[in-house]
Amino acid sequence: MAHAQNKIKAQKEENPYLKAFLSWFGKELGKSPNSVRAYHWELSRFFNYLAQNGITIPDCKRLDIRDFLTELNQDNSSHTRARTLFCIKTFFRFLYREGYIQSNPAETIDPPKQTQKVPKFLLANQFRKLVKELCHEAGKENDVQKKILKIVYESEPGLDSFFVLLRTLGLSIEEISSLSFSKINTRNKTISLHENKKILLDQKSSACVARFINNQESQKTFFEDNGRKKAFKNHISWLESNGTTQEEAIHGLESFRVNPAKRDLAIISLLLGTGIRRSELVGLDRKNFNEGSKTIMVTRKGGDQQIVEVGDEVCVTLSRYLGARRDNLEPMFLSVKGKRLSNEGLWLITKKTLGKLGLEGSTHTLRHTFVTELVRQGVPVAIVQSVVGHKSAQTTMRYTHIISSDRRKAISKIRLGIK
Predict the structure, then answer these.
(1) Do both 287 and 347 map to the same domain?
(2) What are phi and psi of 299, to 5 degrees?
(3) Quick check: is 383 in a domain?
(4) Rounded CA separation 93/101 (Å)
């Protein structure tokens, strides 16, 4: 009994079977990190159930798996149970093939019957209202930025104006605090920062930087005599004294780092206008966008790359967002910390954006909206399948049921007066 308990404890803490499986699943099959995490999570639930019931993996029987699925039945949909069973069957198939177990207890278990799940999507008036609101926010952000830049460009060289100028270039307070004079190259129009990050100067900002650098007294005070600390304390009030409100000064300067309103508009437009997946969007680099051909290079599930066409409106939002960026960083979309936007970060942006209009949904909702609109416009299923990267036509066919339902509702409204 004690030996069995030790085996169960070891299984729960280390689980060499899971380690071997995930290694094979990720490296040999070339599955994405997201897929590996998903399998890890699904299987961990199953292993916890086995451990709680005193069952080791080699001793697991068909009935044990069915009991686990029955327990899942209380709180999960048939779709969720089918997905979990698929993970379990893949796991035990691997163990049996590699000789870890003598028989496969999951082989003859049939998946639960699934009802056709209708994808959740936004109506045309909803997603147009969403984009309109984002355009409004991006416009407000742009107006405040222009106001601050006008003040900086027209001011005399000084500690406060230079501190504000550096912030309009996207430098954080920490980056300004550690900036040395040697990192500024007015000839190449760059400011070198940490981790190979550079700030690229345009003609106006380069002229302003050069004007300050050429003022020996200001330069010495800023870089050698603790002038930056003084400027940090005063730069917001300096902007206010030159015509901005406190809110414009604070939020406006912060917006120069990642241009959040322009970024969010580009993100939502890209999701609605191409239907790419969450992982595909956060994996994009700036070089993946070709403005000339109006395309993006997307890495699909399994690592396959595909060129995806981008509509004129989406192309404009991407160009404006990337054109506002001063850094040379590779990721197309950045977090507030200046790092590549994560899946979780994208989820929060989408949830927050939809929530402002009282809507619920996720990136999948926007993907479903894109596919639904294509089907509504009469685009053939085969083309829709290719555009969105569905491996199976059956996945795409789900959306035709939505359109059929719309047609049925429309027809039912016709009254001929027959009794």
Answers:
(1) yes
(2) -95, 110
(3) yes
(4) 10
DSSP class per residue in 231-248:
HHHHHHHHHHHTT--HHH
Q: Could you tell me if 44 and 173 lie in one domain?
A: no
The predicted structure's pLDDT at residue 14: 60
Range of the domain at 6: 2-97
Does residue 121 lie within any of the structural domains?
A: no
Q: What is the pLDDT of residue 112?
A: 78
Per the structure, the count of domains in the chain is 3
C-beta of residue 302 within 8 angstroms of C-beta of residue 31: yes
Q: What is the pTM of this model?
A: 0.74
Six-digit token string for 83: 């997905």
Confidence of residue 418 (pLDDT cuts 50, 70, 90): very low
- Helix 203-213 vs helix 159-168: crossing angle, to nearest 10: 150
| CA nearest to 306, candidates 314, 295, 318, 290 | 295
Residue corresponding to tokens 């066409």 = 309
Tokens read off for 49? 């159930």
The CATH number of residue 356's host domain is 1.10.443.10
10 Å CB burial of residue 217 (0-12, 13-18, 19+) is exposed
How crowded is residue 33: how many other Cβ atoms within 10 Å of its Cβ?
Answer: 10
Active-site residue set: 277, 301, 364, 367, 390, 399
DSSP letter (8 states) at residue 15: -
Residues 6 or more apart in contact with residue 6 via CB below 8 angstroms: none
Q: What are 296's two structure tokens? A: 């993006």
CA distances from 119 to 198, 279, 371 (A): 43, 19, 10
Q: Indicate whether 264 and 396 sit together in one domain.
A: yes
CA 330 to chain centre: 15
- Are residues 212 and 265 located together in one domain of the fold? no
Beta bridge partners of 334: 340
DSSP per position, 262-291: HHHHHHHHHHHHH---HHHHHT-BGGGEET
Give the model's pLDDT for residue 10: 41
